[in-house]
Design a protein that fits this description.
globular; 18 strands; alpha/beta
Length: 453
């Protein structure tokens, strides 16, 4: 009888292995690859950052699910979910960037099955989902601290330290000289690709993690995901991000430039100069992520407050995103949430506020999606403004041609129309109205125009 039970147990285990397609001992349960969804080309990505803590105080992944149709309606095609892993309790600040377990979901946010359902629901709507990954440090009560203290950076007395040069006292700095730790980190990332089907990662403080690790990691992830493609975003500005395999990194310089121009009266030409500098050595097909806010910036002030009102915030958004692609929308800016958002805690956002503003974002994103010249590495031809107050750029890709004009000042200004546009009948892409351009054009305070031939 005992031998019969033993045989049945072995047969049952073998059947499970066959049905799941996993090798015994594997920690990754491979998911079926859908033929109906493929991530968009990087040039076409419109990224929407999801801070779960503005959707609900608990079970927030389910709350995000309930908003998916509204998010999709904006015209975005990729969600970036901020960290959803269990948060460290030792020395805690309740930051989601203090990861206690790389292969779990915090009860506050939901379960792994909730995340899997969210990924599937995104795919059904033609949207991808990337996870926020924290590779530079862990929580102090991450199991790695006790099991593998050699995986961490230590001071001269042998004590594990928090990341040097920061005040991030709630996290322990990882030591990338340790090959076993590197392997464990890649294995943890593969877990979410293999068993949940995520479409890539936004990698936190990527510049503080060695480039050779990212090269190994990204190569491994892409090989494992085939035939699926992954989108890899580095929170960094190091050109080596791209040689390591990232598709995008942060346009921090441009974000600072738009603030200087709009808040401090710096000449509008600075935007062109920074754009040229950010793209001058960039390989075709790689992009800078352009934004007027994100979780770090909204922690300080909302874009409405930062730029001086709703109209100013929209002028900043158009000047930032229509110049060279790489669009990011931080969830809450489309409803004009006026206050700072502390992502260490739940902050309720009224998603029904300011419907006219939301419709404006929707229309802007629609124009962006319909005109590849706005989101590509095509020709960017700027035109001088004597007042240095109107951004004027001719965007061209093949037969697609859009003239972008943005008044970045709180006063009306006039600019000479570029010669090749003078006397041309154009369409206002936001309103559908057709007009014939004269020799000059006047824009009211913070007004913008997107004109197509």
């Amino acid at each position: 009888m005992k031998e019969m039970k033993k045989l049945l147990l072995i047969l049952s285990f073998a059947l499970v292995v066959v049905l799941t397609g996993c090798k015994p001992g594997s920690s990754h349960n491979a998911i079926p690859v859908s033929d109906s969804y493929m991530v968009p080309d990087v040039a076409d990505v419109v990224l929407y950052q999801v801070n779960p803590r503005v959707f609900a105080p608990s079970n927030s992944l389910q709350a995000v699910m309930e908003h998916l149709d509204t998010i999709q309606d904006l015209g975005v095609n990729m969600l970036w979910i901020m960290p959803i892993y269990p948060i460290g309790l030792e020395k805690t600040k309740n930051s989601p960037y203090s990861v206690r377990d790389y292969k779990a979901v915090a009860p506050e946010f939901g379960t792994v099955d909730d995340l899997r359902a969210l990924v599937n629901a995104c795919h059904e709507r033609g949207m991808g989902l990337i996870l926020d990954w924290v590779a530079n440090h862990t929580a102090w009560d991450n199991v790695w601290v006790k099991q593998h203290p050699e995986w961490y950076t230590k001071d001269s007395t042998g004590n594990i330290i928090y990341p040097p040069g920061t005040d991030w006292t709630d996290v322990a700095d990882l030591n990338y000289d340790n090959k076993d730790m590197r392997a464990a980190m890649i294995d943890a990332m593969r877990f979410w690709v293999d068993s949940v089907g995520v479409d890539g990662f936004r990698c936190d403080v990527a510049d503080q993690v060695p480039v050779d690790f990212w090269t190994e990691c990204i190569s491994n992830l892409r090989a494992a995901a085939k035939p699926r493609k992954l989108v890899m975003l580095a929170e960094g500005a190091n050109p080596d991000n791209f040689t390591a395999g990232f598709d995008l990194n942060y346009a921090w310089d441009f974000m600072r430039a738009i603030a200087d121009v709009m808040k401090d009266g710096v000449k509008v030409k600075k935007l062109i100069d920074v754009d040229v500098e950010e793209y001058k050595d960039l390989e075709r097909g790689k992009f800078k992520l352009r934004f007027t806010t994100n979780h770090d910036e909204s922690f300080k002030a909302s874009p409405v407050k930062l730029y001086g009102g709703v109209r100013a915030s929209m002028a900043a958004f158009v000047a930032t995103t229509m110049l060279h692609g790489g669009m990011l929308v931080y969830g809450s800016q489309e409803v004009g949430y006026p206050e700072p958002i502390n992502f260490f805690k739940y902050v309720p956002v009224d998603w029904k506020a300011n419907p006219a503003l939301r419709d404006e974002y929707k229309k802007l994103i629609s124009v962006y999606n319909e005109h590849p010249a706005l989101r590509s590495s095509g020709r960017v031809e700027p035109f001088d403004d004597d007042d240095n107050s109107i951004l004027c750029v001719d965007r061209v890709l093949n037969n697609d041609n859009v003239l972008v004009l943005v008044n970045v000042r709180d006063a009306a200004h006039q600019i000479n129309v570029p010669p090749m546009w003078t006397g041309t009948v154009v369409t206002n892409l936001m309103t559908g109205e057709q007009v014939e351009l004269g020799k000059n054009i006047s824009l009211s305070p913070y007004q913008y125009l997107l004109l197509g031939k």
